[in-house]
What we know:
With 146 residues, the chain is of the alpha/beta class. The chain is 35% helix and 28% strand. It has helices at residues 3-9, 51-73, 97-117; strands spanning 25-28, 31-34, 37-38, 44-45, 48-49, 79-89, 121-127, 136-144. It is globular and about 45 Å long. The model has no long low-confidence stretch (mean pLDDT 97).
Amino acid sequence: MSAQKNAEALGLIFEKQTPGYLNLCIRSGNQLLSSGHVSTLKGKLGTGVSTGEGYAAARECVTKILNSVWNTHGTLDGLRVIKVLGCVNSAPDYNDQHLVINGASDLLHEIFGKTTDGYHARSALGFASLPTGAAVEVEAIFEILA
């Protein structure tokens, strides 16, 4: 099944976006670069927000990214995931950022393939705070294959 059909089978819905202050996804050559997309979940991992809740929030961030990619490219087909940056709003002693950002990576693997076009480089970092108090922020880079 294609990436677009995989996403739709998982229940992802793609909706037209109205341009805003910043470009949520921009094409440069044969790459699509997303802006950071934040979770609706607010709070700090390690003090009130669980790793499981963070995982779901990272997954939500990727659904938002994919909608922005779809708005720019018109489909998820013909793309390869290159790089993911995950930012986790973390308490000073919280060190499971990688487990939180697995939520983003796992969804990309489900849609694009774990060992094929979804196999990507990744950074998972802890931050003292994120915009709007979001628990998680994710950005991604995609290569346009066709």
